[in-house]
Amino acid sequence: MQVRELPPSAVPEGYFTDLEKVRDRVLVANIQRNEMLLESKLAPVGMTTGGVAAVTDPNKRAMSVKVDDVIGVAGFIKPADHVDVMVTIEPIAGKQGNAVSKTILENLKVLAAGTQMERKVKDEEPKPVQVITVEVEVDEAEKLALASNQGKLRLALRNPMNKEHVLTKGADVGSLLKSYRPKAAVVAKSKTDDDGGVRIELIKGDVRKEVRF
User: Fold this and answer.
1) pTM value?
2) pLDDT digits (tens, 9 = 90+) for 10-39
3) Were 202 and a residue from 46, 60, 166, 209 both cysteine, which residue would form a disulfide, CB within 3.0 to 4.6 Å?
4) For residue 107, which of 131, 130, 127, 136 has the smallest C-alpha distance?
């Protein structure tokens, strides 16, 4: 570690002037060679372990889900990104109904993304499986656990500037096939009044409206 002098106008927020203030502190992000060490790169004072635990909000939980390249947006999801979680649930066997897709969680912070080795059968050769770890509230963790067991998950990568919450009704086969239909044609019928005025009747679907000229 080196100490360098910088002009006051070039000093970023969170810098250190004393090496003793960073002694025994734990990194929570990768540091490149000759990169400036800032407070944002370190775990809180007193925390002696790094990794995901160090970057998780004290009031939240870190939860991992297994994904493939499609679910994980073809590998473009990385730590510090934000994602929405959607689930598709098939109807219960023996009961009528359609598959339903629904956004269940929004704007979750990604804490880690990588691969781990998994062996499904005892004698099977371990295979790499992509795992994404997100930061969730306790009730969100319950929803994510249920969704991952009952349906198929999809992750949607968000623009970091988008903080908007959107409530949706979900989509099933019926609503899917009704979408993007052509609008009902507008039919106009004209009539002439005794005073020479003109009445036009506008018909749009099952709505009728009369306009006088």
Assistant:
1) 0.60
2) 777 877 877 777 777 777 666 777 777 787
3) 209
4) 136
